[in-house]
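Appendix B, Record 12. Input sequence as logged:
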Amino acid sequence: MSWILDFGFDLDFGLELGLGLVNIDFFCYVVLITGGTTNNNDGLMSAEIFNPVTMESCSLPELPQNRYYHSQNEGLVCGGAHPDAKTNCVKWNPASGNWTMSHTLKYDRYHHVSWATASGVYLIGGYNSPKTSEKVKLDGSVEEGFSLKYATR
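Logged structural output:
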């Protein structure tokens, strides 16, 4: 699973002509890649950031559990087919450089879709929960979402 991240920072430098400091906003779009599966359907715990401009990547600390058939919205990774991952989410914390458990889900979630909103992320459908949804909120809570008329897998 991958997601494009927008990292922005300010770059301050002095000009030789005595014009003082110039502030430039610089943005670099990178892709966060998490989990996956091997030919044996073993889950992967890997995570990396890929820069498509330089074609370089760097490894991040491993995910706490194997993740495959999961969803990812920016640094939030939810569900997956591995038994240890089906009912939780982890979040990447760039300040600490670690993955932390962020949410406990109400339903198994794998082969599902996600929908990011301003107040949280909806996890919708999936293999074991085809007619349910739940909202993973920014404050760490999870609430019941909406029911689906048709099964989604």
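Confidence is low (pLDDT under 50) at residues 6-18.
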